[in-house]
Description:
By secondary structure, this protein is an alpha/beta fold. It has six helices and six strands; from the N terminus they run E-H-E-H-E-H-E-H-E-H-E-H. The protein has helices at about 20-25, 50-60, 70-80, 95-105, 120-130, 145-165, and strands at about 10, 30, 65, 85, 110-115, 130-135. Strand 5 (about 110-115), helix 5 and strand 6 (about 130-135) form a beta-alpha-beta unit.
Amino acid sequence: xxxxxxxxxxxxxxxxxxxxxxxxxxxxxxxxxxxxxxxxxxxxxxxxxxxxxxxxxxxxxxxxxxxxxxxxxxxxxxxxxxxxxxxxxxxxxxxxxxxxxxxxxxxxxxxxxxxxxxxxxxxxxxxxxxxxxxxxxxxxxxxxxxxxxxxxxxxxxxxxxxxxxxxxxxxxxxxxxxxxx
Length: 181
């Protein structure tokens, strides 16, 4: 049962994912969580590092699409600044938002990768949808009030998964080692 929370890869930061790594996996688009994955949860502004990473993806014809449980107004504000497509109100971990992204942007499950900082929403949702995933460390150590309960539960799940799967380790890139599953 807890296997559904296991990410394909664990990378310390979204910024360590390169176009070359994605091409090696035949990935054409990155679905990314918004808060604490792409930007800090408490700041709608992107860092220079975020902007550079997005530009690098665009230069290499890799679409970056925000897939967020946040309301449209919040996601649209950030997406317009970063000039990214987005799917708000995704209802992760359910498949609804993932399927909407695939249909809306004419992608297949094999062409996308989900990147997120939460195993309960991002990783489980990707697994439910049959999409490979990358768990990243949250940008900030703090979270919005509604995420704190998830973090408590996630700690228990991660402890179990890491004990059962010694290959689950934080890496510097997708190809530091084989997939975790």
